[in-house]
């Protein structure tokens, strides 16, 4: 008789799997309520595209800053304590939107987002390797893809809140850039104060909700890993990790993937605006992208039963590159549809790269996870470069033509480059890199 395949999640570990998986939706909400804020802050505070892109720089640079400290904290203490600290930082950053709006300071808003993502760095550095440890090694990548499938559900919530409670209520957007700029100073100041309060309020409510969840985690009896503390040094673990091409190339691929994702989801609003669609009216396209992303995540998780991760990654990167080429060269709503369609092929990239890199790493996975989360800095750097391209002809999005298309279309050559790097990594894994097994410190099974 054929041997039964191991379960994705053992029944005995189902409860901790469900509890920790809820965090994936929580940081998805934060990510996607923030993406439209690039355009919102640009209009309310009268910024150029490069200045507005600092929203994403502040948000994603927080991951780079705090990922390694988060891994050290989790190693020294516990997954549960790391999650509690992460939730505390998350709530602090969200609540700082209140004084930022009172002072009407763009820098203060950026600081609040930076601190908020300190918390997200703790959550992501902790949750992903913990999910991978909750069952057989053979199903770790599928298990992570399953947990990550709940991330876009939270992201959908973030986009809906952004549309209903922020973008649709901004007076600066309703008036239009030229009319807003021409207002007398007193009236403009009143609208700016009102609009910043509109941006502020959902973040305050988010901070309160996160504090409630923190209270639940404080009382929750969550399974903890019994680890051999003491002998596993940071330097030794990092040395073992970076000695493996399969791992270090994953960090590079992850940085480029996150950069591509954030560019495609941030600048969908600018792309839509260039063809006459207002920001609030463009949100349904962002929602469609997330729905397609969610479908792709479930499809990809199923396909991983039949295809190796590297092979599937290469195929999906090829599909993403094709859709990006259509985004660049199809001017009008057809290009916008292609931009939405990229999300299907992006769906499996983050957890698959993550799972391939950490497969077989045992206790080294804690530090391995840190560098993969630090790679999210690609989401800080790439959008700012795209903002510079958008500013080449002026503050608009169709001021000049490059390769025969408006600069907003041309700017998607950056995601195209990123998908090429992801495809290269998929090829390398499929053709050259066996699973990482030698010299790895084993990871004990979590005890209930």
Automatic annotation (TrEMBL):
CDD domains: MFS_FucP_like. It is a multi-pass membrane protein. GO terms for molecular function: fucose:proton symporter activity. Its main location: membrane. The keyword Nucleus does not apply. Keywords: Cell membrane, Membrane, Transmembrane, Transmembrane helix. It is found in: Cell inner membrane. The chain crosses the membrane at residues 12-30, 50-71, 83-100, 106-123, 144-166, 203-222, 250-270, 282-300, 312-331, 337-357, 369-390, 410-427. GO terms for cellular component: plasma membrane. InterPro entries: Lfuc_symporter_FucP, MFS, MFS_trans_sf, MFS_TsgA-like. It comes from the Bacteria. The keyword ATP-binding does not apply. PANTHER family: L-FUCOSE-PROTON SYMPORTER. This is L-fucose:H+ symporter permease. It comes from Neolewinella marina. The gene is fucP.
């Amino acid at each position: 008789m054929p041997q039964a395949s191991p379960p994705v999640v053992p029944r005995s570990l189902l409860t901790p799997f469900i509890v920790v998986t809820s965090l994936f939706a929580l940081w998805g909400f934060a990510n996607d309520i923030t993406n439209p804020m690039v355009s919102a802050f640009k209009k309310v505070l009268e910024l150029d595209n490069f200045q507005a892109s600092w929203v994403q720089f502040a948000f994603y640079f927080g991951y780079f800053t705090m990922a390694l400290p988060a891994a050290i904290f989790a190693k020294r203490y516990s997954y549960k304590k790391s999650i509690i600290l992460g939730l505390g930082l998350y709530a602090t950053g969200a609540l700082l939107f209140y004084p930022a709006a009172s002072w009407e300071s763009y820098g203060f808003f950026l600081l609040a987002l930076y601190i908020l993502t300190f918390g997200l760095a703790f959550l992501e550095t902790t949750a992903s390797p913990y999910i991978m440890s909750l069952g057989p090694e053979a199903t770790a990548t599928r298990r992570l893809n399953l947990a990550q499938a709940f991330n876009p559900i939270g992201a959908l919530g973030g986009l809906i809140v952004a549309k209903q409670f922020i973008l649709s209520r901004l007076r600066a957007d309703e008036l239009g850039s030229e009319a807003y700029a021409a207002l007398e100073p007193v009236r403009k100041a009143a609208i700016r104060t009102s609009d910043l309060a509109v941006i502020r309020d959902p973040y305050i409510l988010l901070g309160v909700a996160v504090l409630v969840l923190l209270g639940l985690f404080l009382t929750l009896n969550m399974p903890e890993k019994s680890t051999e503390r003491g002998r596993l040094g940071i330097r030794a673990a990092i040395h073992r990790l970076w000695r493996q091409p399969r791992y270090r190339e994953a960090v590079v691929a992850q940085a480029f993937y996150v950069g591509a994702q954030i560019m495609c989801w941030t600048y969908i609003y600018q792309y839509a605006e260039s063809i006459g669609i207002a920001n609030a009216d463009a949100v349904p396209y962002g929602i469609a992208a997330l729905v397609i992303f969610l479908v792709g995540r479930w499809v990809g998780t199923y396909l991983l039963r039949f295809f190796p991760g590297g092979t599937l990654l290469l195929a999906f990167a090829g599909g993403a590159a094709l859709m990006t080429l259509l985004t660049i060269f199809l001017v009008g709503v057809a290009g916008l549809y292609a931009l939405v369609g990229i999300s299907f092929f992006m769906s499996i990239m983050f957890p698959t790269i993550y799972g391939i890199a950490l497969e077989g790493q045992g206790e080294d996975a804690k530090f391995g996870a840190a560098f993969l989360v630090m790679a999210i800095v690609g989401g800080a750097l790439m959008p700012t470069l795209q903002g510079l391209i958008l500013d080449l002809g002026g503050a608009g999005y169709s001021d000049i033509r490059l390769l025969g298309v408006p600069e907003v279309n041309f700017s998607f050559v950056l995601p195209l480059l990123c998908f090429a790097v992801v495809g290269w990594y998929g090829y390398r894994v499929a053709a050259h890199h066996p699973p990482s097994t030698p010299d790895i410190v084993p990871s004990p099974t979590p005890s209930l």
